[in-house]
Structures are given as C-alpha cells and as structure tokens.
Design a protein that fits this description.
The protein has 175 residues and is an alpha/beta fold. The chain has six helices and five strands. Helix 2 links the parallel strand 1 and strand 2.
Length: 175
Amino acid sequence: MREPEISDNDQTTYDLAAKVGQSLAQCGWMLVTAESCTGGWAGQAITAVSGSSAWYERGYITYSNTAKREMLGVQQATLDRHGAVSPQTAQEMAIGALNRSHAHISVSITGIAGPDGGTATKPVGMVCFAWVAQNGLVQQETHYFTGDRESIRRQAVATALQGILLILGDATAVA
C-alpha cells in the first residue's frame, strides 16, 4: 500500500502524526482531539497516517462558542470571564473531549490564526493548548506564533502533536 503523497511543507506534520500513532499504539491508548482555530487540521494530519483508526478515536471541531459549550461542555462562565482563546477554555475543551469519548488522552487547540481578530492582549498568533490524560495528567501551554494564517495553524498542529509525544514520554520523537 502506498503512503499518501505529501508536500515538503506537510512532511514534518505527517512525521509527527506517525510518531504519535506509534507511541499511542505502543501504550494501547486512543486519542481524541478538540480543535477550534485549526478547524480539524490535527485530525486530518492524524488520519493521513495509515492505520490511525487503531489509535485515533474521534475529533471535535468546535469553532464557535456555542459548539464549545454544546459539544464539549465548556462553561459559559469560562467563556465570559476568559474568552474562547484562553488556557482555561483550552483545558475545559480537552477535559470535555476526553469525557465525551472512549479515548485515553486528549488535546485541544484554540487560538487566533488571523489575519484579523487579534487584540493587544490576545494578538494574532496566540494559541492555547491543553492535553489531558485519563491518568489525571493535565498540561496547558500558550504559544505566540508568527506568520500568516496557514503558518500559524500549521505551527499549532505541530505543537499539539509534539505535546502528545511529550506526555507519552516519547521525547526523542520530538527532536
């Protein structure tokens, strides 16, 4: 069976997704994603890897606040107090995705990819992540990426995948 043709720009993302799959398969875990600004790109990168159904349980694309509330259980109070782009919302997204799936680990991505929508306190390129594992591990990070919309989204997907590898203890795969 042939591997999918991918451009040089996508090779790093594909390689990361393949390493995520290998790591998840080795520990017998399934992954769930909850995406906002990446619009399903992480799920697409993951499912580009042959055999991903063995380790990718499902993905949520929750672009609107309503979707974040209805599909993932993000609290309206969190959105009102911190906004959709915040570590708090990212954490609630990841927890909600894990709780509403059969997965063992989740990742969430919410941010401002631009070119519009940024503010002085939340500029274009600000992306919040959270990773939650069923063993109780919760990790969150905020990154400030530069570049155009596609570049910011690509960097966000790569960061999400690298975070999964780190949580799974596969630090050598991130190098």
